[in-house]
Amino acid sequence: MSQTTIPEADRSSTKKPRLDKSHDILTCTIKTPEFSYAHMELITDNTTAEAPSLDELQVKSYCTAALRQFLGLTGAGMPLDILKAEGAHCWVRVPRPDLGSFAAAITAWRGTTEDGAPCLLRVRRCSDWLGAMVGSEGQDRLWN
Amino acid sequence: MVRIKERYLLVNIVYPPDPSKPAESSLPSHVVHHQPTTDKLTYQSLLKAIKTEVALLFGDYGSGSLDASLSIKYLSLATSTFIIRCPRAHYRMLWAALTFLHHVPIAHGSGRPCIFRVVRVSGTMRKAEEEAIRRAKRLIIAAQEEASCATSTLTDAHVLQEPLPTDITDESSDESMGEGDG
């Protein structure tokens, strides 16, 4: 939908105001969204067994352990929402000012051993906008 | 010229009276609140307690940013006051950790319950010392006035306890405290 903008001078002229084919009903600028989103994947060395699967409780416990180690009690108290956990991938939501600390805590986490194999959480993508983050899913496959 | 900026926190150790015990009538409340501290409190034990609290509250990030350049510059057991130095960017983390301490940190056993109250944040050591001296003088005068109020039967309108100033951050008179650090 194209948006044509008419300069203010034309509007105030004596011409009859005409309704464009497309006009703005509402313009809203969001400078500071409230939340930020992160997409993480569980990476494991275990090549023989099947791919690891994550569920929400596991994500919560791994993230809490990482935040607790890196940021102490104030980090463990960070409000974290788990949007989805599927296969080895998970999508979480954190308050926007805490995204940097959260990503640093996950990166600094030494991981756990699951069934004898060390596994880590790797941040695939993080963004202020969920739609943009999920929508650009296959981009790295496109260019490789 | 690049200069390492630091903050000096002037901290009082305050002993609130135990509400379960009956109040001792003879001492003025200022004297009770600002008692001398046991000499089991040493530089090392206090520093260690603060570092442990920072590691608990703020994790590796807090330890990394504060541990290296945290030091106690002055400790006075008689006046229960100490001055601690920390990097300028992280003084609020240190202040928060001090708020969460509630026992006097001694090497063995657990100390008395107390409150660590930050009364001045300053950019230079000299201003922090001057403030410590000023507060000690005012405390003595206030305690004397309170004692004389309690003993005298006449109520004198001029003998009012001067409230200790609540302006903590020393911004106007410190030349090396630049713009606000956020």
From TrEMBL, chain A:
One matching Pfam family: Pop8
Taxonomy, superkingdom: Eukaryota
One GO BP annotation of this record: intronic box C/D snoRNA processing
Domain Ribonucleases P/MRP subunit Pop8-like: 34-109
GO molecular function, one term: ribonuclease P activity
InterPro entries attached to this UniProt entry: Pop8 (IPR020347), Pop8-like_dom (IPR049128)
GO cellular component: a single term: ribonuclease MRP complex
Protein name: Ribonucleases P/MRP subunit Pop8-like domain-containing protein
Organism, scientific name: Hapsidospora chrysogenum (strain ATCC 11550 / CBS 779.69 / DSM 880 / IAM 14645 / JCM 23072 / IMI 49137)
UniProtKB/TrEMBL annotation, chain B:
InterPro entries: Pop5/Rpp14/Rnp2-like, Rnp2-like_sf
Keyword Nucleus found: yes
Gene3D superfamilies on file: Ribonuclease P, Pop5 subunit (3.30.70.3250)
Statement: the UniProt record of this protein carries the keyword Coiled coil: no
Keyword vocabulary terms for this entry: Hydrolase, Nucleus, tRNA processing
Bias-annotated ranges (Acidic residues): 168-182
GO molecular function: ribonuclease P activity; ribonuclease P RNA binding
Subcellular location: Nucleus
Annotated catalysed reactions: Endonucleolytic cleavage of RNA, removing 5'-extranucleotides from tRNA precursor
Entry EC no(s): 3.1.26.5
GO terms under biological process: maturation of 5.8S rRNA; tRNA 5'-leader removal
Functional note: Component of ribonuclease P, a protein complex that generates mature tRNA molecules by cleaving their 5'-ends. Also a component of RNase MRP, which cleaves pre-rRNA sequences.
Similarity-based family: Belongs to the eukaryotic/archaeal RNase P protein component 2 family.
PANTHER family: RIBONUCLEASE P PROTEIN SUBUNIT P14, RIBONUCLEASE P_MRP PROTEIN SUBUNIT POP5
Record's protein name: Ribonuclease P/MRP protein subunit POP5
Protein source organism: Hapsidospora chrysogenum (strain ATCC 11550 / CBS 779.69 / DSM 880 / IAM 14645 / JCM 23072 / IMI 49137) (Acremonium chrysogenum)
